[in-house]
Each structure stands twice: as C-alpha cells, then as structure tokens.
Design a protein that fits this description.
Number of domains: 2
Bound molecules: zinc ion
Number of strands: 10
Helix content: 10-25%
CATH class of the largest domain: Alpha Beta
Order of helices and strands: EEEEEEEHEEEH
Number of helices: 2
Radius of gyration: 18 Å
Low-confidence stretches: none
CATH superfamily of the largest domain: Nucleoside Triphosphate Pyrophosphohydrolase
CATH topology of the largest domain: Nucleoside Triphosphate Pyrophosphohydrolase
Oligomer: single chain
Shape: elongated
Length: 177
Amino acid sequence: MNETTESTVFQFCPNCKSAQINSENGHKHLCNHCQFEYFHNTASAVGAIICCEDEMLFTVRAQDPHRGRLDLPGGFVDHNESLEAALTRELKEELDVTIDNWQYFYSGANTYFYKGVLYHTCDVVFVCQLFHKPLLTADVAEITEFKWLKFDEIDCENIAFASLRKAVQKLLKQTIE
Ligand SMILES: [Zn+2]
C-alpha cells in the first residue's frame, strides 16, 4: 500500500452491518440498505517552520508513515482547537518548548496513510523567527531527534510530506531572493 491508495473506511455499514455500503472517492460513504451516511472529511493539520538566523528546525519521524525522514514539528488539529493552539500544543508535546507567536505562511493538500486508512489533510504551515535557540527535548515516541539545518544544507527531497516540502521550498526561495 502506498500514500495514494484509496482505502475503504468501512467494509460493512456501522449502523446496520449491511455490506451494501458504497464509497465515492473514499469521501462519502452511503449505506444502500439503511441510508446511513458518513463523510470522511479532510482533516486539518499544522506544521511549524522555525528559523534561527540561517538555520531551520526539523524533526526526524519515529513512526510510519515515512519513518526516518525529515518532518516539521506539528500534527493533527484536535476537536475544538484552533490551528495556532494545535501548533503550540504539538511543540510542547514533541520538543517540550513553548512557542506561540505564529505567522501564517502556506497551506497545501496532503494524504496520510495510517493503519489501512487513507486520510486526506489540509496542512497549514506557520513560521516563527527565533533570535536564540531554545532548549529542546525530543519526545522519542514521536520523533527520534531534532536537527537545526543550515538553509543551504536542507535536502528538500528528504522531507516526508509533499505539502511541507513545498512550504520549505517556498521559504528558502524567499530567503535567497
Ligand atoms: Zn446500513
């Protein structure tokens, strides 16, 4: 299975257990037996581009999908949470640091294949410019390590998700110009 595989969220209707449940593009699921309907809607996710002088902060993924590849700090937005609050929470969880001065930078569609289910996300990237590198502690359950990479050392092809890769490329392009 790869990222582009459209998964079947339900093999049987969760309401009446009928096998007559159909999915349209993995988004709308309709039971032809009891008319139960479920929309597997696009999930919000956030990512942080944190820069200090000529360096950018990356994490290395500890889990699939894309274990071992570069990532930006961030993750899925919880219920009843703003994008900025989600990012601040994720930074605290992943790196034990409090950062809350975010500026919107970029958004892009993405897919996330996890345990047989394909999630479509809209990844929203915020930037934060720091003047001093903060003390960071990696949560090894989520990330194996963090890395400050100089702008000219960043291998964009090693960034796990296409949307985040595009955001980093956009920022690097602006920095050069
Ligand atoms: Zn049903």
